[in-house]
Write a structure and sequence with these properties.
This protein is mainly alpha-helical. It has one domain: Helix Hairpins (Orthogonal Bundle). Helix content is 82%, strand content 0%. α2 packs antiparallel against α3. The longest helix is centred in the C-terminal third of the chain and has 27 residues.
């Protein structure tokens, strides 16, 4: 996931993406605990994607607050 792609999305789309990523992170943690995880690097990718989405949401919120 690229940050430039995320910046083109609306805050609602970003929140939906965040929910999806958090569900995936939960499922990956569950798979890791049961030993069924095929790609352990995916956990790290998802965590970083969650951080990217949160950062861009905060940037958009700060920009909206600055305009008012």
């Amino acid at each position: 996931m690229d940050a430039t792609d995320l910046r083109d999305k609306t805050p609602d789309q970003l929140r939906d993406e965040l929910v999806t990523l958090k569900k995936e992170a939960f499922n990956l943690r569950f798979q890791a605990a049961t030993g069924a995880l095929e790609n352990p690097a995916r956990i790290r990718q998802v965590r970083r994607d969650v951080a990217r989405v949160k950062t861009i949401l905060n940037e958009k919120a700060a920009a909206a607050a600055g305009e008012e």
